[in-house]
Specification:
Order of helices and strands: HHHHH
Low-confidence stretches: none
Number of helices: 5
Distance between the termini: 13 Å
Oligomer: single chain
Strand content: under 5%
Number of strands: 0
Largest sheet: none
């Protein structure tokens, strides 16, 4: 019984990942809305020789930017200006929920 539950959990995760997860990861990583620290310093702090973390954080907050790192590269913040991709992502997320509901009913 426990192993059937584990197999079921793995199948639910696969449904989520295959229906919307792959598309979400791909389009989020291809977004270009987050900037590297070097780009932030070059574009927004050109006259500062060695900017501090507080200065960079102030620029990020004031300009409504995000810093590109391994977390923000795959997040929705990296494509917050790509409206068509966000609409498609929302639709695929809804389709994932519907597919999960049908799978839950089938497993029951």
């Amino acid at each position: 019984m426990f192993f059937n539950y584990l197999k079921f959990c793995i199948k639910v995760l696969l449904i989520s990942f295959l229906v919307s997860g792959l598309f979400n990861l791909y389009t989020n990583s291809k977004g270009g809305d987050c900037l590297t620290v070097q780009a932030i310093v070059h574009n927004y702090l050109p006259n500062v020789a060695k900017p501090t973390a507080a200065q960079i954080a102030a620029v990020l907050a004031k300009q409504n930017l995000c810093e590109l790192n391994w977390m923000s590269k795959f997040s929705l913040a990296n494509k917050h200006t790509a409206n068509a991709e966000q609409v498609l992502q929302e639709s695929l997320n809804l389709l994932t929920i519907v597919a999960t509901i049908f799978f839950l009913q089938y497993f029951r």
